[in-house]
Amino acid sequence: MNNINIFFNKRKKTYFYDLLKNLNINKKSQYKNFLINDIQNLDKAKRNDISFFHSIKYRDSLKSTKSNFIITTPELSNHLPKTKIKLIVKNVLLSVAKITEYFYPNS
Q1: Are 79 and 53 in contact (CB under 8 A)?
Q2: b/e string for 16-41 if b means 16 or more Cβ within 10 A?
Q3: Backbone angles phi, psi at 69, to 5 degrees
Q4: Per-residue pLDDT tens digits for 26-79
């Protein structure tokens, strides 16, 4: 099934570096030209999507997610596989809201 949002228009290009700036995370210049497709929950995320891990009850979903970029807290970060890029924030859900607003500016 094609997952198209008919209500809001998504930005054409979103770079990982811009998301880091939006979240006030130290700039990681090695990701400057890395395109991110969308923000999704752990179950639906694909390789170039950003996802989030905000509760230990989603640990099983974390094990099977295809996303390489995970927003989480310092307390939960040790549950992430070493192959994932961790985005450590104080408030995961607030950060998800900021990123969603960035992806869908007219929402």
Answers
A1: yes
A2: bbbbbeebeeeeeeebeebebbbbbe
A3: -125, 115
A4: 766 667 788 999 999 999 999 999 999 999 999 999 989 999 999 999 999 999
Amino acid at 19: L
- Judge residue 57's burial from the number of C-beta atoms within 10 Å of its C-beta, 0-12 exposed, 13-18 middle, 19 or more buried: exposed
Structure tokens at 91: 């408030």
- Considering only CA atoms, which of 19, 15, 41, 23 is closest in space to residue 91? 23
Secondary structure of residue 50 in the 3-state scheme: strand
Distance CA(5)–CA(8), nearest Å, equals 6
How many residues can be counted in the chain? 107
Classified as helix, coil or strand, 92 is helix
